[in-house]
Design brief:
Low-confidence stretches: 1-11
Largest sheet: 4 strands, parallel
Radius of gyration: 15 Å
Order of helices and strands: EHEHEHEHHH
Number of domains: 1
InterPro entries: TIR_dom (IPR000157), Toll_tir_struct_dom_sf (IPR035897)
Catalytic activity: NAD(+) + H2O = ADP-D-ribose + nicotinamide + H(+)
Strand content: 5-15%
Pfam family, one: TIR
CATH topology: Rossmann fold
CATH class: Alpha Beta
Number of helices: 6
Structural class: alpha/beta
Shape: globular
Distance between the termini: 29 Å
EC number: 3.2.2.6
Number of strands: 4
Protein name: ADP-ribosyl cyclase/cyclic ADP-ribose hydrolase
Strand order of the largest sheet: 2-1-3-4
CATH architecture: 3-Layer(aba) Sandwich
CATH superfamily: Toll/interleukin-1 receptor homology (TIR) domain
């Protein structure tokens, strides 16, 4: 049912990359989204840190996608892995002018955009673990683009 692939079995092209974190969200929402997209003939790549061993989204996957869907949840900003992937997705969006569709699952869009509430607090804490100085400021401002 899921189109989760390892790097040695990658098709030439994906229509949609779905980026998320957590098995709970996978079972509750992402599996249904993936099923609907597959039903209408779209090829998806489910990208979450439990399924993909690499640190970063592989360039061939992202460059051949038409759309990236980022599923924001309360726990998304607690994951350094997710935040790094989000930076790659934003860069991909700016470079290739591809669409990024944010999905706010059980979280207010303003909490993500304005980096406030529990999401914002976790974002700052996680960012401070992986960045420092000017790089930290740059990352925080880039993440607010969605």
């Amino acid at each position: 049912m899921d189109n989760v692939s390892s790097s040695n079995k990658l098709p030439q092209k994906y229509d949609v990359l779905i980026n998320f974190t957590g098995e709970d969200i996978h079972r509750k929402f992402v599996s249904h989204l993936n099923s609907v997209l597959s039903t209408v003939g779209l090829t998806t790549f489910l990208h979450h840190h439990n399924a993909v061993k690499s640190t970063h989204i592989q360039e061939p996957i992202l460059s051949h996608c038409r759309v990236a869907i980022v599923v924001f949840t309360q726990t998304y900003s607690q994951s350094a892995w997710c935040l790094n992937q989000l930076l790659q997705i934003i860069k991909w969006h700016e470079t290739y002018c591809r669409h990024v569709l944010p999905v706010y699952y059980e979280i207010q869009p303003s909490d993500v955009r304005l980096q406030k509430g529990d999401f914002g607090k976790a974002l700052k804490e996680t960012a401070q673990q992986i960045f420092s100085g000017q790089e930290l400021e740059h990352g925080m401002s880039r993440w607010s683009l969605l």
